[in-house]
């Protein structure tokens, strides 16, 4: 589905939920009044004294701001958007940013580059959990996909981008911005049931959103967007009524009763929502390794749902899948 028929599921009323691998992109959501992204003017690269302007020239390169960030996330439903997070304090940032821009240009509209100066936009570094700069992270259908930190040569970068495009194709993201600027119009309308779910999420009615996604899956069982959306809103719903006191009590119970299914799954939800993705996934894998029968199967099903929440192409999910295979077989 190359049209932008999927918006990232907004965690309305669920600030505890960090979507997609615990990177809360929607915490930066700010619908732009102006077009979400526009090409730099000719001669912008290296011109002027503003270092933030350098490296943004070219129709496929966009300087990331708080105002256009959400537009770029929505654009990732059409083509993968690669973010390079850089700082003037890092000597290698500028050259890597420019090199990556040239490589992105060579793909002829199949990729878009967002250059983000973390000194000007520190919230983005926090959202992507950046430990050092430069760092490159792709966003695909609203889902962050880590690429690399530090220096990388052209061969390494192209290899990663080729893999990114394979993942994008597998997820139906095969658009092309045609060498022009990202679409500055409104996103295409969602399918009716997806729109119904989206509206319910914005209203904080996760049960209604889940019902809409289930109906969409009954009509189209291969609808991966509905599957991912269902997993997300079900997690939101489970956490919606959980107070801080309840969370602490749940963690205590899980520590005291390692084979209590409900406690372990509940804490896994908290871990995923709180950004401790590996802890959450490994907790459920460990439970599966210790138990058998119906409880093991219930934990396995929940783990697969959590994979959809985090994102099936996330490296942490891939590692958890391997760990699951080891305990099952």
Explain what this protein looks like in three dimensions.
Mean pLDDT is 78; it is low at 1-58 and 179-186. Helices cover 50% and strands 9% of the residues. The protein folds into two domains: 31-170, 3-Layer(aba) Sandwich (Glutaredoxin), CATH 3.40.30.10; 192-328, Serine Threonine Protein Phosphatase 5, Tetratricopeptide repeat (Alpha Horseshoe). It is an alpha/beta fold. It has a five-stranded mixed beta sheet, sandwiched between helices. The chain has 13 helices and five strands. The two termini are 35 Å apart. Helix 10 runs antiparallel to helix 11, helix 10 packs parallel to helix 12 (294-310) and helix 11 (277-290) runs antiparallel to helix 12 (294-310). Strand 2 (81-86), helix 3 and strand 3 (112-117) form a beta-alpha-beta unit.
Q: What is the secondary structure topology, with strand pairs?
A:
Blueprint: H1 19-22, E1 61-63, H2 69-75, E2 81-86, H3 91-105, E3 112-117, H4 122-127, E4 135-140, E5 143-149, H5 154-170, H6 192-202, H7 206-219, H8 224-240, H9 244-256, H10 261-274, H11 277-290, H12 294-310, H13 315-328
Parallel strand pairs: 1-3, 2-3
Antiparallel strand pairs: 2-4, 4-5
Helix pairs in contact: 6-7, 7-8, 8-12, 9-10, 10-11, 10-12, 11-12, 11-13
